[in-house]
Amino acid sequence: MSWEGYLFVYLPGEVEAVPAGRLVLDEAGPDATASRFGYGRRYLVRPNAVPVDPVSLPLSCLPGDEATYEPAHPPLFGAVRDAAPDFWGRRVIEARLRVPPDSVPESVYLLHAGPHRFGALDFRPGMDNVEAAGLLPPITQLGYLMEAADRVQQGIPVPAQLEPVFTGGTMGGARPKALVIHHGEQYLAKFPARNDGFDVPVVERACLELARRAGLDVPPTDLVKLADGRAVMLIERFDRKAKGEGFVRRHAVSALTLLGKDEYESMGARYEEISARIGRFGVDGQVQADRNELYGRIAFNVLVSNDDDHLRNHAFVWDEAGKGWRLSKLYDVVPRPQVAAERYLHLSVGPRGRLATLDNLLEAHGDFGLLKRDAAAIIERVASVTREWRVLFEELSVPEHECNKVASAFRPPREIGMNVVEKVL
Ligand SMILES: Nc1ncnc2c1ncn2[C@@H]1O[C@H](COP(=O)(O)OP(=O)(O)O)[C@@H](O)[C@H]1O
Ligand SMILES: [Mg+2]
Predict the structure, then answer these.
(1) Best residue among 179, 180, 188 to mutate for probing ligand 1, ranked by most atoms within 8 Å of CB
(2) Is the same domain home to 186 and 280?
């Protein structure tokens, strides 16, 4: 079996998509086995054409009547995989189609992820097909969305009147979420999940605000209390911007895609590889700024024990002015309480691998284009803020018992090599 259709792109500043080329997906049962893509001639000559995939489909590709391309990592092009739902989005689509988990072909998930998917791609069976309908609900509907999400988590049917969750419920990630309109912009709403050990939405939101205080680039966030007392975290989308009645999109890909890697290669990948890719695919004049930001994020992850820092939790957005890929704003950063004295991040930090210490990170300074002293200054800036996390959490009304539940995640800088960093300052 194979699916053949058109890959559309919403070009920078435009609210309508244009066809970029023809995509073929070979499938055996629910599994994709191979893909091919050829750019349309008309697309490639557009002055504001966006590369579909930085690694496998740069704009230097030949048009489709001269060449078709295959993904760096079969079966899917990284950018196509990023535009398809993963764990949570799949459950939402299955609930709508009333089919068992992971039972339908990849192309079904790809087509059903709808117009609000991550990034600026869309998939349509024909050249003349228009965008799938689907208005996002306002945050006043969060209570209903949460109820629908509860049902999806339990695998029980969702009644028709709760269906708005399906309009925008197909972003990536595993946790329950939906998309909503807030202050006229698109926000990702992240719900509590069954079996959470602490109030994740409240803590995640506070942690993102802590990152902002530490000088990191964080989208606007908010917290909404539902009538039943549960809290929902909101984070503004960095790949959408309101324009007139619609939204313009920025094409975005995961770091997994920028590195041309497959899911199973994420563990053991190195931050240094992300830095090298920023050098290769980034925007002239902005490479060091993005490396500094990445370096600060690693320091933050070490200090708050965010060890879920896998390659899908870092993203890049296409920068039209600079014709390159910029590090996206920060998202999905959650402290993970634990008892271990020796801790590890998901990605490798420095010469001592994944070991989550500040001296390990300091030693890697050269991989990020940093002088040792400048690297130490970034670490010091972040550590001086995370050290005072309780003050901000209190300011944000995080209840004390929630602070206590996550306290073990926040590491006293001195216990993880801050003395070595201070010597350089
Ligand atoms: N602020 C945002 N703007 C645009 N896309 C986002 C934003 N936050 C998350 N995403 C996308 O949604 C996916 C899931 O969000 P994430 O916060 O990582 O959820 P989870 O906790 O389920 O992993 C991310 O992998 C990323 O692709
Ligand atoms: Mg995530």
Answers:
(1) 188
(2) no
CB-based burial label for 408 (10 Å; 0-12, 13-18, 19+): middle
Q: Is residue 218 part of a domain?
A: yes
Question: Could you tell me the distance, in angstroms and rounded to a whole number, from the CA of residue 410 to the centre of ligand 2?
Answer: 20
Query: What's the predicted TM-score (pTM) here?
Result: 0.97
Cβ-contact 348, 269 below 8 angstroms:
yes
Per-residue pLDDT tens digits for 292-302: 999 999 999 99
Say which CATH number the domain at 306 has. Answer: 1.10.1070.20
pLDDT in tens, 222-242: 999 999 999 999 999 999 999
**Boundaries of domain holding 85:** 2-124
Any domain includes 94: yes
Smallest CA separation from ligand 1 atom 9, residue: 331
**Are 143 and 118 part of one and the same domain?**
no
Distance between Cα 310 and ligand 1 center (Å): 12
Q: Are residue 156 and residue 258 in the same domain, yes or no? A: no
The verdict on the CB of residue 188 being under 6 Å from ligand 1 is: yes
Check whether 288 has a pLDDT greater than 90: yes
Hunting for tokens 């010091």 — which residue is that? Answer: 380
Q: Are 327 and 252 within 8 A, CB to CB?
A: no
CB 117 less than 6 A from any atom of ligand 1: no
